[in-house]
Model the fold of this input.
Amino acid sequence: MLVNMRTMLVDAKQKKYGVPAANVWNEDSIQTAISTAEKYQSPLILAFYPAMVDILAVGKLAVERAGRAAVPVAVHLDHGQEFADAVKAVRAGFTSIMVDRSTCPFAQNVAEVKEIVSFAHAIDITVEAELGHVGKGAEYEQTKHEGLTDPREALRFVQETKVDCLAVAVGTSHGLYAGKPELQFERLRAIEQAVPVPLVLHGCSGTGDDNLKQAIGLGITKLNLYTDLDQAGYAALTQFLVPGKSSNMMEIESVMLSGYGEKLGHYMQLFGSVKRA
Ligand SMILES: [Zn+2]
Done:
């Protein structure tokens, strides 16, 4: 069933488990993610990155498919950086929007998030925003101590914007890490104690199972995943391809998506979202 992400994350916060937010891009990836969630009876967040996917066309498919799912599924706009992205997501029937103004100064971030919260809440859509900035893995060694979330600022941000959940910068990074991920658990603990809403972790791929589990114990409820799922798909393909043996595109695509689904299932078990549907 299609659900509001807020309800899903409040339950996760109370019971201390995490919900995977898996990036999808077409009908087959949507189908794979939902079947995996049904197999493990796990709630699921389908995340759409607007720079890579036509959120109106493919997003509508996801909303329709989520409505027929046997488990709770939220359809979410990932890193909506333009006002127009939020409008498109609403039009497609998404139940959640991320308003990413994390590179803006504090006051501008607050003002622009507030503007979207005011219309999203009127139509029961969840809003996620980011305070601090989760950067790129390729620049990790240079930037890992920059843009980290300040707990007191985080409280002010949540109070002023009325945002439903908050993405925090505590040492993770998007894409592949150049270097070893170093999570700032004390900072996360302080944010969790200060902020009443569920917390979100971006850049979970490559962060390591132990780190992610510990982050969930300290209040992370939504964990964003793409690179690891993508790499698992690619690994499944390289195992499948044998020199001299022919294949076809349909078979190749299903092999890659089986790798994606298996990795997503691994994370559902790790995050404790199994049988929470
Ligand atoms: Zn992200």
Summary: The first strand starts at residue 19 and ends at 23. The CA atoms of residues 229 and 260 lie 5 Å apart. Residues 79, 134, 174, 202, 224 surround zinc ion (CB under 6 Å). Residues 5-271 form a domain with the TIM Barrel fold (CATH 3.20.20.70).
